[in-house]
Amino acid sequence: MRTTVRPAATLLLVSALLAGGAHVPATAQDRVGSVAVAEYDLGDTAFTDSQSGTVSEVRAQVHYPRRPTGRLPLIVMSHGSWWACDSKDTVEWPCEEGSSPFPSYRGYDYLGAALAARGFVVVSISVNGINRTSFDYGDRARLVNEHLRLWQQLAAGRGGPLAGHLVDTSGRPVARDLTGHVDMNRVGTLGHSRGGKGVMWQASDKHRGEWPAGVRVRAVLGLAPVKFDVPEGDHSDTLITKLPFAVVTSSCDGAVQEAGQEYLDDVSGLNTIDDYSISLKGANHNYYNTTWTPPYLFGEDDSTCPAQELPPSRQQDALIAYATAFFRYELKGDQDGLPVLTGERTLPDVTATTRVAPAHR
């Protein structure tokens, strides 16, 4: 593996108010207005896992180019473990009367908008039912697969549930706008915290046979992912050797530390394609999600080094830059992002350590 440490660099950033305040690099400021926002909600009990019996909602926020042309790569994002409802006293799923589902899936609106401005369809899914009733990572992986199954139906022109439920912020159906414009052969996934292990599970060599027909995942990003094996030493459920992945960790992460770097250790000498990681100095765990960040309800600063921590906007901007570089390179073949992944080009306003696990040949 190759390790490079890069100093901070300065780049003018602009703040765009998109669904909760997205911070978009200046290079995209002329494009953020071209991003459309939609959502779908099939209900709190729309999906029952055939293996575990876990009951989950099927709900998501979607960012996409306002005037899509051609077939665009799809990125599915999955949040981690947090309060399932907006009352801490709630103990069941669905939320009890007087309480509503907590909008953790909306905490990545800034990232969805930035990626959509660069030609991706981005779907951030809600995982509250699993957080309330199950900590099983197979449940998280299979919920991702359920959303991919629905998108495959839409992309293939077969309609399906999304045809009648995908609406913009005014309630106007928008499925027709995207039908024929989503490339299910170029799918990326991103998971935060427990969701990070969930997407590693979903894309692993062991579980890739469970992908819906017509779907091909080509890039995976674990964001501050949890990392532990059950049984200890058996990492087969999350071992990815056949497609590229990247890991983002934080030096001041008070929740999972930097255990996610072990995913690169697991694959060293086995991977057939280059894999990457970055550690952001001063970043914490929760600031990647705006709904987990103070002053939002239940927001927490989990930093282990509060005197040196990055402000939320800077941490989020760094994620935008890295995720954009990774997905553009892996899903679009855009070589411009490769120096960011290798550490040859620095991220704005942060100090970071990069690693590369070169393909074993």
From TrEMBL:
<keyword id="KW-0443">Lipid metabolism</keyword>
<keyword id="KW-0378">Hydrolase</keyword>
<dbReference type="InterPro" id="IPR029058">
    <property type="entry name" value="AB_hydrolase_fold"/>
</dbReference>
<protein>
    <recommendedName>
        <fullName>Alpha/beta hydrolase</fullName>
    </recommendedName>
</protein>
<keyword id="KW-0442">Lipid degradation</keyword>
<feature type="signal peptide">
    <location>
        <begin position="1"/>
        <end position="28"/>
    </location>
</feature>
<keyword id="KW-0732">Signal</keyword>
